[in-house]
Amino acid sequence: MANYIHVPDGSPAVPKLDVTVDEHDYRAGALKLIKTLRPHWKPSEVKMKTFTDGITNKLIGCYVGGSMQEVVLVRVYGNKTELFVDRENEVKSFRVLQAHRCAPRLYCTFNNGLCYEFLQGVALEPEHIRSPAIFRHIARQMAKYHAIHAHNGWVPQSGLWLKMSKFFSLVPSHFEDPEMDQRLNNEVPSAACLRDEMIWLQQNLSKLGSPVVLCHNDLLCKNIIYNQKEDVSLPKSLHLLHRAIATDWRCSVCPARTPPGPVTTSRVFFCRPTLLSNVNQTFFCFFFTLHIINFKALGMQGNIKTH
């Protein structure tokens, strides 16, 4: 299977708690989870902070005291997000990455979400990842993901096009709300146009011979955490998937480098060379080189094309 994720033998089991958290009135449900995960915390002293950067889930930080030194993150799944996020695969991804020290600790799952460790630091902005002092760390951390070997000699196949096809199957053709329907027709390319672009991408990218590795697949700036120890973490692992290594680089590089323009799949999923200035090409090549150095240093075998 293209999306086969194997949890290493000996990985700690993840408890499943029979708790449902209301995303609008979450305190009562979150306290039930905290009672199990942190039994020494007094419920009356538990403080909660809602993080607002996510668009598909509600993320709540639970802690006690005046500072957020020990925080339990409670992620409540958004309505119908299971249609495009494989929740079983997400838990497996957490466990795989945790075994390789690439992810925060996963404390438990519950009926409509999961709880995991809070990593201290700040979420990055596009201007941050242009800093050589920071993108070196990003390249190193990405290489750790990409160097995780497939299980028992299995040769991974890219799951990118299957995943994109699944996304396309969920795209609505119209909305009942007139204003939303007008925006869909006026501002979003037609499904036929987007499918043509996806076919173009598949035909062109598949010829490049880019190695298929385990990829993060969601390396937006806000999903990269930078801490005072001058290191970065990539805590979000909803979309872990085997696919061509080059397509994972675009998530981290292109948001900071692609100029404004019409929304098309070739702009969102792949940076065409014509979109990049000389300075941007230099940045991309430097980032690419740093990644390959770290990738090979971690023991990944095979020919990596660098031209």
From TrEMBL:
Q: Does the keyword Ribosomal protein apply?
A: no
Enzyme group, top EC level?
transferase
State the Gene Ontology terms under molecular function: ethanolamine kinase activity
Biological process according to GO: phospholipid biosynthetic process
Pathway annotation from the record:
Phospholipid metabolism; phosphatidylethanolamine biosynthesis; phosphatidylethanolamine from ethanolamine: step 1/3
The EC number(s) given in the record are 2.7.1.82
Q: Which InterPro entries match?
A: Kinase-like_dom_sf (IPR011009)
Q: Which UniProt keywords apply?
A: Kinase, Lipid biosynthesis, Lipid metabolism, Phospholipid biosynthesis, Phospholipid metabolism, Transferase
Q: Does the keyword Signal apply?
A: no
Task: Report the Gene3D superfamilies cross-referenced here.
Answer: 3.90.1200.10
User: Do you know which PANTHER family this protein is assigned to?
Assistant: CHOLINE/ETHANOALAMINE KINASE, ETHANOLAMINE KINASE 1
Protein family per UniProt: Belongs to the choline/ethanolamine kinase family.
Q: What is this protein called?
A: ethanolamine kinase
Q: Which gene encodes it?
A: etnk1
